[in-house]
Backbone:
């Protein structure tokens, strides 16, 4: 399906249009949630500090765990084996001195990868990679970097900070150059108390029809409801975010009489908020967030 331009997070209507002969399978979110809980239980056995990134991905801080395995690689082999034995799934592991490099390493040999980036080999492994691999360099930023003549991470590492600050602003400029040099000071942070739980989606092409908007709002409500239930939280306030094709952005919220984590209640609240906006032009982005737990 990739050959036809189908990729993750693409609206189903677009995927069917690009690959009509594709086989489309319904999701089983309750099953994914159960398997995710199994995987995170294994993570907890391997590190006292686990920071979730998504339903199936996390950072593990293994500082001080050296006596539990012959080497970091052996540690990863055992972790991968345990995940496979208990769930039947293969896992990709990246080991590195910091979060950015570990995440990068975990993506380099998927599926079933195991990549170790040692401190003395950071430049050798990192600098030849394309700029798209930089954390925080989305499509737009990566495209801009290539236009400026920066094709690889090594090019960015050697760039003038003053030039980057003028173009990207001080915060993003600092982040790009630091990461390109393999520096990332962020600690692995176990789950903190959430202030909000939400989900948004940006469409490749603006959507307009009432039916399509309704479907997307329902999909978002299901995701937010599932995340609230997983966190054992209920939200009293539901917020809707709408961005139009010209990037005009609206946010509207409603506080309910009773807090909820039910998909249906979240969906109907979002639909009412959307109807009150009276939007008539194409929509680039939709988002739903639950707050006020």
Residues:
């Amino acid at each position: 399906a990739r050959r036809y331009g189908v990729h993750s997070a693409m609206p189903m209507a677009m995927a069917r249009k690009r690959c009509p002969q594709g086989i489309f399978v319904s999701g089983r979110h309750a099953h994914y949630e159960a398997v995710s809980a199994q995987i995170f239980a294994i993570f907890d056995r391997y590190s006292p500090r686990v920071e979730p990134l998504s339903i199936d991905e996390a950072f593990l801080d293994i500082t001080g765990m050296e006596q539990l395995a012959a080497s970091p690689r052996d540690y990863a082999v055992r972790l991968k084996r345990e995940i496979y034995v208990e769930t039947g799934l293969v896992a990709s592991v990246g080991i590195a001195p910091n979060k950015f490099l570990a995440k990068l390493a975990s993506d380099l040999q998927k599926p079933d990868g195991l990549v170790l980036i040692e401190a003395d080999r950071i430049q050798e492994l990192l600098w030849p990679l394309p700029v798209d691999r930089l954390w925080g360099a989305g499509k737009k930023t990566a495209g801009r970097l290539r236009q400026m003549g920066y094709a690889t991470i090594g090019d960015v590492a050697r760039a003038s900070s003053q030039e980057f600050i003028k173009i990207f602003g001080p915060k993003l400029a600092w982040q790009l150059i630091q990461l390109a040099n393999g520096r990332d000071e962020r600690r692995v942070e176990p789950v903190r108390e959430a202030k909000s739980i939400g989900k948004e989606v940006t469409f490749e092409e603006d959507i307009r029809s009432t039916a399509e908007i309704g479907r997307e709002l329902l999909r978002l409500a299901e995701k937010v409801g599932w995340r609230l239930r997983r966190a054992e939280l209920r939200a009293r306030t539901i917020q809707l975010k709408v961005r139009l094709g010209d990037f005009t952005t609206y946010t509207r919220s409603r506080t309910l009489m009773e807090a909820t984590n039910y998909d249906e209640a979240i969906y109907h609240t979002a639909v009412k908020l959307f109807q009150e906006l009276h939007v008539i032009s194409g929509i680039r982005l939709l988002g739903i967030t639950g707050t006020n737990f």
